Each structure stands twice: as structure tokens, then as C-alpha cells.
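Review form for a predicted model. The reviewer records the input and the model, then writes brief findings.
Reviewer: anonymous (R2)
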Amino acid sequence: SAELLLKARNIGRNLFDHAAMPQEEDGLMRQFKDLIRGGINEINTAMSNYRHGKYPGKAALESCCELLKKIAGIRVAEEFFDTLVENEAELYSAMQEVKKVKGFFKNQLPHFDKAVKMLNIFKDNETYVLDKEINETVHKVRAIVENPNPYSEIVNLPGLVAKFNQRFAQLLQEKCQPIRAHIQADYAQVKEELLKHNLESDIKEEIKKPFEDLLERIDSANNFYKAIAMQTESEILKVRCFDKIAEAVKPVDQPVPEPLAKGGGKITPPSEEKSPSRFTQHLSVAELVRTAPLMTNEAEVDRFIDEVRTKLKGYIRDNMNVRLV
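Model under review:
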């Protein structure tokens, strides 16, 4: 009927923002199907974004696409327009949701991605970040990111992310300062040891470079776990450097020329048992004392000292010198 076609043309103008709609039935139906196919293609293009992350709006796109396909599949004109008019309210609501989702991917996606990245940073450092301000900020950001319909709130994300980043950097810097001091102290011990020996410059640089690299890394650390691990790495490096220095200054045994008898024959000297050379074992205090027990009486102190004494004597019995570094 003319009234049905008039309603259909109005739907075309309202839903697809298409003013020039044909008057006759067949042309109007073809125009609608072209517009619906275009809408489906746009939805499919938007759906490709979900391969790259967990974003809002996927269910809305799928629901709208299913509805459009159902209408587009109708071949009888009267049934087509009846279905179109009957589903006008549902179509309008679905297309409005699609419009929001398309606007999200066009304008809001960078802010959303930065918020997700911020939440991942917090997750990786959560054990060490107990700050009330940061936890409140994370709660607000997570509420927006996990909201199935967050579009009106995404405008708040840049400010919240900036607030988190500023406070996180401040806390990380506070954590890194004593670690950096620890690394510098270990490095100072190594440099002091190097000054005692006349080593080739390339050997000195080889020994010093790992500490130089470690100091650069602590200055650019963006993770509490990695920063804390650098303190242990520094202690390991220090022991390794002392070992390298000891190896570099170790005297090389020169072969003793065999004495000759009259007439050119060799004299076999009496065999002498040489005592094996003593190796110096470099130990950090952390290696020597693996645990930090609570001591509340003299007996517990004596027990702790006995354990340390036993470890040190074990090295001596194995013909080693021991040096704490």
C-alpha cells in the first residue's frame, strides 16, 4: 500500500540518512537492499578490529548484522516492507549502537588501548604497588574498560592514565634509588680492586662494562620486578668480576729447564711433591647467609655463627682461600 511505502521511505531517511528514496515499490526495495548490504559491509569491516583486542560493542554489531541479513533475505516486496516497518524500533536501536561502535573505533580506540596497557602494567607490578591513590585510579579505569557500553566515559581515560603514569613513575623511582646505590657500591668495590692491579685496558673495560650496562638499565627500568632483580644481578656480577680479576693476575708457571750432565745427558732430579695451588673463592654476604633468621637469645646467635663458621671452614678444608666481597 501507499501508506506502507511511505513508512518505508521514512525509515530509509531516518536509518540510513538517505533522502532520495524511489517512489515505486520495486525500485524502493532494491534501494533498501543496497543500503542494507552497505550497512552489513561496514559492520564486517568494524568486526575485523576484534582480532586485535578485546573491545566493546561486538555483540551489538553481531545483533544488528543478523537483523539486517534477515530483512535483506526476504524476496517478496509486501513481506519485506511489512517486516521493515514491524522492526523499525529494533532497527533504529541497533543502528544507533552500531554508530557508537564505529565512532569508538574511529575516535576513541587510542585512549582505550592506552588504558588497557596501563592495566597490564599494574597487573605486572601489583604485588609491589600498594599505593592507595594508584589503586583507586586503577579501579576507575578498569570500570570503564570492562563496561560493555563505555563510550560516554572514555573521555575520562586520558586524565586517569596520566595520573597513574605520574604516580607509578614516582613510586618506581623511589624503589630504584636504593637499588642504584647498591649497584654503585658493588661497582666501586670492583673498581677499587682493579686499581690494585696493572691490567690491560681492554681487560679492565671488559670487567667494567656489565656494571655500566646495569646502571643504564636501572635508570630506564619500568617494572618493579626487573628493578628488584637488578640488585641480585649486581651481587652476582661483583663476584664474577672478582673472579675474572683473580684469573687475570694469576701467575703463569714457567717451565724449569732440565739440567744437563757432562757429555750432554739429562740429569733426572729427585721428584718433589708440589702442593696444589690454593684457589680463592669469592663470596658475597648474600651467598654466605642465605636466610635471615630472627634471633632472640644467645643460643640462637651461637647456632647462626656456627653455621657460618662451618661453611667457611668447609672452603678452607677444600684447600681454598675465602674472600667476602
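Findings: The CA atoms of residues 218 and 226 lie 9 Å apart.
Further findings: The mean pLDDT is 88.
Recommendation: see findings above.
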